[in-house]
Design goal:
heterodimer; A: mainly alpha; 12 helices; about 0% strand; globular; B: mainly alpha; two-stranded antiparallel sheet; two-stranded antiparallel ribbon; 26 helices
């Protein structure tokens, strides 16, 4: 670990909150185009955040101090989890600091506080959101860990930089990888609150999960929580893009390599975002009690991937 | 060894202190209790630092069978665990027992049996022979029976205590038989002789099965966990903390002592059994915890889950050691011991929190609490730390042990057997699932009890608990933080147990200094808990600074928004039952859920919901049926006539004569 790597890690960490609103903007734009609308600019989510920061913050009389610190904890934990995921370069000291299990743990920490904050004010909606969120995450988290374990086992490391390096050098898409990829995509859809599990643009009590928890938030608190949710989407996008399709990612700190990596990442995320938008256009939001079937599928995929890896591919 | 003597003396003094005046319990007995904990802690640390073993002969016991004490790294580790918890419990108890002074409860038994209970646990950890081990074990079981039965006015408590006594005796019997098998090979009851003898695979497996059953009952593994959720809520809260935090660990100690130390060569087949039972316990325990509305029952079921996780680690360790992967075996063992330590810290903390709520709000039912964080900010903060730790979230201690267990499970690729390669990832999946569900259970517990608005009047008037109770909780909360942030230091101590037991430590774990944790090698996995905490603090500071400079700083208080309908009342909040409902539907098949609406003639319809443990129908009912049938057979022999009994006696004598002459 030298100075250049550290500078790179800091720069990469700062890139996350800047790039995250753009990805969300792109998904919305692509969705609008698929639905024959013109849609808002790609910059609109970033502008919304700016507007929220400029607004006064309201807090309910019944809220405890936990309600006010939660946005900071959620934002920080999500950001730190993201900082451990290779975005442009695999030479990342932060991914030695926190391996992939820690990333899952940090996302869990953010979710824990978010669910608590939902129950803090004492309204019906918050509790509903918290209860549903814990159900979805309770089923999604094991699938996520199992999918990641498949990668970790073939790379013999849970360090994300090493996993990506391993994929770069020995990377053929084995059957176990395909199962892990399928599982990770399903988990990503559920954990980032997209259709068919949750709908990020609705405020209808029958359908909302994430929105129900943050209904009481406003102003800068809401801006932080929104930004954290956007980072989480980018995190899953970068995880899928860089671990399964690692082409183009920089293995050194040279400016040209970083430039190529930035271009490659942007290209991969454009494709992923468009795929997400297409999926959201084609599918409908499922009833809450069909979510377990969806997540069981993810879990099954992950388990099959892991088992096919340890039973079939290990000898090779 | 001086510390050892002090530990014994102070727990004995605690025994006699309360006979005369109630205030003595607070003034003398409990401080002595805490001192005994401190002595055990120091003693254990010394033993761990020493590495070797020290022995001592007590001037007690039978003439040809003196009571030998021995202190090695394994006993030392569990003494540290017991001592740390006892210290906190002793301090906490000073405030907690004040409640009982005003009531009708008899204080002398509480003080006396608490002291005996502690003495029993300490002796179990230090016994160097089956005889003293069993005496101490029974002392521990019996004295805790009286503590469970402490508030015996309540019929449910009497029933819980009886169930506990029954299961405790079956457990003791199994352990006794296991020692019997081992002693028949060694020819002596001393542990040193057993260690030297090596029974063949069949008899070793018999001893293993007996020991696993016996210690498994005490550790509360599924399906023999039934006593645990009944007994823990019945006992006074500081005793629950001690039972759950320490007594279950004494059972883990016994299992380790018998299986890893005494039986001889280890076989991986045993590991498969332990791993399966551990996984089942983890999953069923957390599901049942999620369904509870009684806070102390929830914590009790969560103990079933956590002991399941400990036994997952032990099972992995047995598998790796049985297939001759010593380093990985040591890693899994360290993971299991780390989790045992963590569970003592956070479960003790959480039971103390439940006790604090009971003390000031007189409420155990979650659905009647709410908003306690405002009334009891200290307890609220400590309970939050405990909840985060038990949910396995970084940077607290629960995460470290789960991380280590995952790291051990990820080394499956080094094994050759296809069965094991399938089984271990499945166990890891169960572990991941139960960790996620534990988070749901504790979001529920914390959210319903401490957040929102008070649902009843007496909860609204809850007051801060006395200083001693806060100090007791604070100590354990600090312990949770320290064990979470400095894992390499803690592991350096724990690794001395496999070092002395198996001859293999974890040389790599602390090789990168206290900042980095690298269990196998730095390229395989690394985690820097201080680094993560530091980064979290820096990023949070940076965020707060930027937001406060850039954003509008004004904050206005207003009413909660609830669709603009009638103003929200506390009854509109989600209850614990409501919170768990989605997961109850998902996992309904694992539990016995009886749900419906009772609508009698003219009466208001009532929602009926009863969730029971499937193991009652699947495991206990058949056992009871078989026992019932057997006892019926026996009653046939009892005709009530003297001549029939004489005939039986004559027959038996003839049979014996024939056997002897054979």
């Amino acid at each position: 670990m030298n100075a250049a790597d550290t500078v790179l890690a800091v720069a990469q960490a700062l890139l996350w909150p800047l790039a995250a609103p753009l990805l969300v903007g792109w998904v919305r734009k692509a969705k609008a185009m698929l639905q024959n609308r013109r849609g808002a600019s790609v910059l609109q989510p970033a502008r919304n955040l700016g507007k929220l920061f400029a607004k006064e913050t309201r807090v309910a009389h019944t809220a405890s101090p936990l309600f006010r610190v939660t946005p900071y904890i959620v934002f920080t934990a999500t950001w730190l989890a993201a900082a451990a995921v290779p975005l442009l370069s695999t030479r990342l000291p932060t991914s030695a600091l926190a391996d992939v299990i820690v990333v899952a743990g940090l996302l869990g920490l953010a979710r824990f506080f978010l669910a608590l904050a939902g129950m803090d004010v004492g309204t019906a909606f918050g509790g509903m959101g918290a209860s549903r969120e814990m159900m979805v995450s309770g089923l999604a988290e094991p699938a996520l860990l199992m999918a990641v374990f498949t990668l970790a086992m073939s790379a013999h490391s849970t360090n994300l930089s090493s996993v990506v390096d391993h994929q770069l050098t020995g990377g053929t898409l084995l059957p176990s990888m395909l199962f892990a990829l399928g599982s990770l995509i399903l988990v990503a859809v559920a954990e980032t609150g997209r259709i068919p599990i949750d709908n990020p643009t609705t405020h209808l009590e029958l359908t909302m999960i994430h929105e129900a928890m943050i209904l009481e938030y406003s102003g800068r608190h809401l801006a932080l929580l929104e930004c954290a949710a956007q980072i989480r989407l980018l995190l899953y996008g970068a995880l899928i893009a860089n671990v399964f399709f690692p082409w183009g990612i920089a293995t050194s700190a040279q400016p040209t390599a970083l430039g190529i990596a930035l271009g490659a990442l942007a290209g991969k995320l454009l494709v992923l975002g468009a795929a997400l938008a297409a999926g959201e256009t084609v599918l409908v939001k499922k009833r809450l009690f069909q979510a377990p079937a969806f997540l069981n599928l993810a879990f099954l995929f992950a388990l099959i991937g892991l088992l096919s890896h340890v039973i079939l591919e290990q000898g090779m | 060894m001086a510390a050892l003597g002090l530990a014994l003396a102070s727990s004995l003094a605690g025994l006699f202190a309360t006979a005369r005046r109630p205030a003595l319990l607070r003034g003398l007995s409990l401080p002595l209790f805490a001192l005994s904990g401190l002595a055990a802690l120091a003693c254990g640390l010394l033993a761990l630092a020493n590495g070797g073993s020290t022995t001592l002969q007590l001037p007690l016991g039978l003439p040809w069978l003196p009571w030998q004490l021995r202190l090695d790294a394994l006993s030392g580790f569990f003494l540290v665990l017991l001592g740390a918890l006892t210290l906190a419990v002793g301090i906490y108890g000073v405030g907690y027992v004040r409640d009982f002074e005003r009531g009708r409860d008899q204080l002398p038994p509480l003080g006396a049996f608490s002291g005996l209970f502690l003495l029993g646990m300490e002796l179990v950890l230090m016994a160097d022979g089956a005889y003293l081990f069993m005496v101490a074990w029974e002392l521990m079981t019996l004295s805790s029976y009286f503590l469970v039965a402490f508030q015996h006015d309540n019929a449910a408590n009497r029933r819980a205590a009886f169930l506990y006594l029954l299961m405790g005796h079956i457990s003791g019997l199994c352990i006794l038989l296991a020692f019997g098998v081992l002693a028949s090979f060694s020819g002596s009851l001393a542990f040193a002789a057993m260690r030297a003898a090596h029974p063949d695979f069949l008899w070793a497996s018999v001893a293993f099965a007996l020991a696993f059953t016996g210690f498994g009952i005490k550790a509360g593994l599924v399906p023999v966990h039934a006593w645990l959720p009944e007994a823990h809520p019945a006992a006074p809260s500081h005793i629950s903390a001690l039972m759950s935090g320490a007594m279950l660990k004494v059972a883990v100690y016994g299992f380790l002592r018998v299986v890893f130390d005494l039986i001889g060569p280890l076989h991986w087949q045993w590991g498969v059994v332990v791993l399966t039972v551990g996984s089942l316990s983890a999953l069923l325990g957390v599901l049942l915890a999620l369904m509870q509305t009684d806070l102390k029952r929830l914590l009790a079921y969560s103990s079933v889950e956590n002991l399941g996780i400990v036994f997952i680690g032990l099972g992995l360790s047995l598998i790796f050691l049985g297939t001759d992967h010593r380093l990985l075996g040591a890693l899994a063992l360290v993971a299991a011991l780390y989790h045992a330590l963590n569970h003592a810290l956070f479960k003790g903390l959480l039971f103390m929190g439940a006790g604090a709520i009971l003390h000031s709000a007189h409420e155990r039912d979650l659905d009647r609490m709410g908003g306690l964080l405002r009334r009891m900010p200290w307890t609220g903060t400590f309970f939050l730390i405990g909840s985060l730790a038990i949910s396995g979230l970084p940077p607290l201690n629960g995460f470290v042990s789960e991380w280590l267990t995952f790291q051990a499970a990820l080394q499956t690729w080094q094994l050759h057997s296809g069965l094991l390669r399938t089984l271990i990832p499945a166990a890891a999946a169960v572990l991941a699932l139960s960790a996620a569900l534990a988070a749901a259970a504790f979001v529920k517990a914390y959210g319903v009890a401490f957040l929102g608005r008070a649902r009843t009047r007496h909860v609204r008037r809850a007051r801060q608990v006395p200083v001693s109770m806060r100090v007791g909780q604070g100590l354990l909360a600090l312990g949770c933080l320290a064990a979470g942030v400095f894992p390499s230091t803690v592991i350096a101590w724990i690794a001395r147990v496999p070092q002395s037991l198996l001859g293999t430590g974890l040389p790599q774990a602390g090789a990168q200094g206290w900042l980095w944790l690298t269990p196998v090698s730095p390229t395989t996995a690394s985690y820097s808990a201080p680094g993560v905490l530091f980064a979290l603090l820096v990023l949070a500071g940076l965020t707060a600074w930027l937001v406060h400079r850039g954003a509008v700083r004004r904050v206005r208080r207003s009413d909660a928004w609830d669709c603009g309908l009638t103003p929200p009342t506390p009854r509109m909040q989600y209850t614990a039952t409501g919170f768990a409902q989605p997961l109850r539907r998902v996992f309904g098949a694992w539990l016995r859920v009886d749900e419906g609406v009772d609508a009698g003639e003219g009466a208001t319809p009532r929602h009926r919901l009863q969730i029971t443990d499937r193991s009652w129908a699947l495991f206990y009912a058949p056992v009871v049926r078989v026992l019932d049938r057997l006892t019926r057979l026996v009653t046939r022999m009892q005709a009530g006539h003297l001549r029939v009994y004489l005939a039986w006696t004559l027959g038996t004598l003839l049979l014996l004569l024939w056997v002897v002459t054979l």
